[in-house]
Write a structure and sequence with these properties.
By secondary structure, this protein is α+β, with helices and mostly antiparallel strands. It is about 50% helix and about 20% strand.
Length: about 350
């Protein structure tokens, strides 16, 4: 039950912050807002609908939310909307800010959460340093030692501990892996073939290099600020790397997760250090939501921004029928992806 509550709170907060970005700038620029809603599906409770006023609602399904703006459809006409209050009547730069404000808010939320984590719990040292090398494994045999810093893996630049963990996970298929290591200001190149072992619990094959990566922390206000921005950039980079591997076929679409998968993760992270883990997970998910929404895909904020950029260069809006058709197709494809990902998450849970 607690997992469900945490799940709802996390998604609710992320959606609230995102939609509030669209909402507040719409209000600032004089765009009429029909409804501000947290959640999707049937309305649970909210304010009464009054002509010319914004209605605030909470809906049954905690998997999203929306802001309904006058003039999102360029052909829209409504008697309750005063002249000049339609979205399409506003300058391109104002519409651009309105569309981008949700993503901006998601990144701000992540920075604040990471800052407070660093301030009150300690800022994680992002240096991709190997803490311990096991003498019985390949990394030690080729010459890697405790305290070495990883600079590259298979030609990919490693800047943070997150990069190191991610590339070790994505590129570790049992084949020879190339490392560039820094030691006392000098760089060394090593080619390492991991040792194959069987996991005692899962009985699955695993490939191990024999290194330990420890979590080291720093304290202080300035370190917390530095950590917040470093971690934000690192999360963003991880998303780019993951999508790159997804589109090149290096990882399968089966690895994607939706609401069911997030629910499962929430259950895992709340087993220990509830507040810290929930804050970290919320920051990560907030960056993910922001990243996905800014992608130039129809029906996403990024897709709408693309139409604004085209309008700016053309000097006139894109044909409303074309824009609506593209967004509808994009939304349908998005729903298909959501169903696919959700089904995969369910299958993983019942295995």
């Amino acid at each position: 039950m607690l997992t469900l509550i945490y799940f709802i709170l996390i998604l609710g907060l992320i959606v609230l912050v995102h939609e509030f970005g669209h909402f507040i700038f719409s209000k600032l620029f004089g765009v009429h807002v029909f409804e501000f809603s947290i959640g999707m599906g049937p309305r649970l409770f909210g304010t009464k609908k009054v002509k010319g006023k914004t209605q605030y609602n909470v809906r049954a399904l905690p998997i999203g939310g929306f802001v309904s703006l006058a003039g999102e459809d360029p052909t829209e006409k409504d008697p309750e909307v005063p002249k000049g209050a339609y979205l399409y009547e506003k300058p391109v730069w104002q519409r651009f800010i309105i569309m981008a404000a949700g993503v901006f808010n998601n990144f701000i939320l992540a920075i604040l959460l990471l800052f407070f984590i660093g301030l009150f719990h300690g800022s994680v040292d992002m240096t991709p340093m190997i803490s311990k090398v096991d003498v019985n494994y390949p990394m030690y045999e080729v010459g890697v030692r405790d305290g070495d810093i990883v600079k590259k893996i298979n030609g990919n630049t490693v800047s943070t501990m997150d990069d190191l963990r991610l590339y070790l996970a994505l590129d570790n298929d049992g084949s020879e892996t190339d490392f560039v290591i820094e030691r006392k200001g000098k760089e060394y190149k090593y080619s390492v073939t991991p040792l194959e072992e069987e996991n005692e619990e899962t009985k699955k094959k695993e490939y191990k290099f024999g290194i330990t990566l420890e979590r080291k922390e720093k304290h202080g206000f300035l370190n917390a600020i530095k950590y917040a921005f470093e971690q934000l950039i690192s999360y963003f980079k991880q998303m780019i790397i993951t999508f790159k591997y997804l589109f090149t076929g290096r990882i399968s679409a089966d690895n994607l997760s939706g609401p069911v998968g997030i629910y499962s993760v929430v259950g895992e992270v709340t087993k220990e250090s509830v507040l810290l883990n929930l804050a970290s997970l919320t920051a990560l998910l907030s960056v993910n939501v922001g990243f996905l929404n800014i992608m130039p895909f129809p029906a996403f904020d990024g897709g709408r921004i693309v139409f604004l950029i085209i309008e700016k260069f053309r000097g006139k809006p894109v044909n409303p029928k074309i824009e609506n058709t593209v967004n509808t197709i994009g939304f349908c494809l998005l729903m298909v992806l959501v169903v696919f990902v959700t089904w995969n998450d369910i299958i993983k849970l019942i295995r």
